[in-house]
Structure formats: C-alpha cells, structure tokens
Amino acid sequence: RRPGKDEVEVAGLVADVFGRRFTLDVDGARTLVDLGRRGAAMVTVSAGTRLVVTGRRKNGELKAWALRSEDEARARVVRKEKRMKKIGAEPQPAPAASEGEAAAPAADPA
Predict the structure, then answer these.
(1) Using an 8 Å Cβ cutoff, are 69 and 76 in contact?
(2) Is the pLDDT at 72 greater than 60, yes or no?
(3) At the N or C end, where does the chain have fewer CB atoms within 10 A?
(4) Given this model, what pLDDT does residue 69 score?
(5) How is residue 48 annotated by DSSP?
(6) What is the structure's pLDDT at 76?
C-alpha cells in the first residue's frame, strides 16, 4: 500500500524508546512515533535500529500504521485502519438463514 494524501512515510534511526512511542531521527530532526497498544504488543523497537515508518501526523506525533526495517521489503502492519471507505473495503452482509431454519420474530420494545 502506498501512502495517501494524509499519510506520511519517513525513514530514519530510532534514537529513544518510551513504551509504545519512540523518536525517529530523520536528517537531524526528531519525530515522535506512536505505535499504539496493538503495535507495541506486536513489534519490539530498540534504539539504533533503522526503520521506515508509514502513518499519519496527528497532535504533533506520527501515528504509525506500518513499519519495516530499511533492509526488509515487506512492512508489518501495526494499526488497523478505522475508516474502511479509505481502503475501499465494504462491510460484508450478514449470512442469510437457511431454508430449514425459521426466522426469529422481532421483539416488540413496548
């Protein structure tokens, strides 16, 4: 997936790690990156690692949705997209009841 208009891709060296957040040194400037709870549980980041982070800037930090080391070709997704319309997916309809099953009548909220 390529970055969209709201998404940013940055590459740099991990300078410091603070729980689920870390600072990425990009050409002398530091960017605070937030992995989120899910991402922090999936990925271990250590200082001195060179990473490419894809995400969205919000409230002065980069909310990462994918990251990879510079020598890897495939990114690891660390955050789910909340807006399904952005990625083109549509919600799936509920499965229909089979012919042998009778549909339950709707309860009257009286």
Answers:
(1) no
(2) yes
(3) C
(4) 85
(5) T
(6) 78
Q: Residue 86: enclosing H or E segment and its boundaries?
A: none
Are residues 79 and 87 in contact, defined by beta-carbon separation less than 8 angstroms?
A: no
pTM above 0.90, yes or no: no
Torsion angle defined by CA atoms of residues 71, 73, 74 and 78, in that order, rounded to the nearest 10 degrees: 40
Any alpha helices (H) in 48-106, and if so which ranges? none
Backbone φ/ψ region at 60: left (φ over 0), alpha (ψ -120 to 50), beta: left
* Start-to-end Cα distance in the chain: 50
Q: Which residues pair with 17 in a beta bridge?
A: 22
Q: Which distant-in-sequence residues (6+ apart) come within 8 Å of 23 by Cβ?
A: 14, 15, 16, 30, 31, 32, 33
What are the residues whose beta carbons fall under 8 Å from the beta carbon of 88, sequence distance 6 or more? none
Does residue 101 or residue 22 have the better pLDDT? Answer: 22
CA neighbor of 52 nearest in space, from 7, 6, 9, 3: 9
Distances in Å between the Cα of 39 and the Cα atoms of 5, 50, 76, 95, 97 are 23, 17, 9, 32, 37
Q: Which residues contact 91 (CB under 8 A, 6 or more apart)?
A: 84
